[in-house]
Specification:
The chain has 5 helices and 7 strands. Strand 6 and strand 7 form a beta hairpin. It is α+β, with helices and mostly antiparallel strands.
C-alpha cells in the first residue's frame, strides 16, 4: 500500500505484512517539548535490484540535502532539487514535496517553513522535514524522512546547514554501498555514532537489552 504516497487504510485494502515486500512506516508523536515525524522503509527479505537502487538513491538525496551548506535567507525551493538529483540521474522522481515545517507541540505540517515555492527563506532555528521518496504504482513505495534543524555552519562567512535530530537508523538491507560517495558514507557513519551515543544509554537505562543490541547492529560503521 505504500506505493500510494498518501495512502489511508481501510478494512477493504488492509494487507498482511510479508518478508517478500517493502514496508514503509510513517510515524510520529506530539510531546510537550516537540513534535516528531519520521519515515523509514525496510525490507525483511531479499529486495530486488530496483528496490535496492531506488532506496539507495532516495537515501543519497536525503543525505545530500541534509549536509548542504547554503547562504542565509536561502529559500527552500532553491535547494529542493538537491534531494532529487540522485533519482534524476537515472530518470526517477517523486510526486510530493521534499519537506515541511514541524511544529513545536503544534501542527505536524506547519507553515511557513519548507521547500515549496510559497515557503519563507530558511533561517537558523527553523525545523523542517527532509523526505525524498520514490513510488512504483502497484509494487512498492519508498520514503526516508527526518526532522532537521537549520543551524549555523562552521564556515568563515555566516552560512547555514542542517542538523538532523531524528535518531533512527536506515535499513542496511536496502543500501547499495557501491552507489554512495566517500562523503556520503562518512556522513552515515557520523550519524550512526550520534545515534549510538544518544539513544544507546537511554535504552540501557530502561533495561531494553534486545532493543539496545538491535541498535548496535543497525549502527555499525
Amino acid at each position: 500500500n505504500a506505493a500510494l504516497a498518501h495512502y489511508s487504510p481501510s478494512n477493504g485494502s488492509s494487507r498482511k505484512l510479508s518478508v517478500d515486500e517493502m514496508y514503509l512506516s510513517d510515524t510520529g508523536g506530539q510531546y510537550l517539548d516537540g513534535t516528531t515525524d519520521i519515515t523509514r522503509t525496510v525490507h525483511w527479505g531479499v529486495p530486488t535490484p530496483l528496490q535496492k537502487e531506488a532506496y539507495t538513491r532516495v537515501l543519497m538525496g536525503n543525505i545530500d540535502l541534509s549536509r548542504l551548506i547554503f547562504p542565509p535567507n536561502t529559500a527552500g525551493r532553491t535547494v529542493e532539487s538537491i534531494a532529487r538529483r540522485a533519482l534524476w540521474d537515472v530518470g526517477l522522481n517523486y510526486g510530493h514535496g521534499t519537506g515541511h515545517g514541524i511544529g513545536n507541540f503544534l501542527s505536524v505540517h506547519e507553515w511557513p517553513v519548507g521547500f515549496q515555492s510559497n515557503n519563507v527563506p530558511l533561517m537558523a532555528g527553523m525545523f523542517t522535514s527532509i523526505e525524498p521518496g520514490y513510488y512504483r504504482d502497484g509494487e512498492f513505495g519508498i520514503r526516508i524522512e527526518d526532522v532537521a534543524l537549520v543551524v549555523e555552519a562552521q564556515t568563515e562567512e555566516p552560512f547555514l546547514t542542517f542538523e538532523v535530530v531524528s535518531l533512527v537508523p536506515y535499513d542496511r538491507n536496502l543500501i547499495d554501498l557501491s552507489l554512495l560517495s566517500p562523503e556520503q558514507i562518512r556522513y552515515l557513519n557520523t550519524y550512526y555514532e550520534s545515534i549510538r551515543a544518544r539513544v544507546g544509554p537511554e535504552l540501557r537505562r530502561q533495561r531494553l537489552e534486545e532493543e539496545y543490541h538491535w541498535l548496535q547492529r543497525s549502527t555499525e560503521p
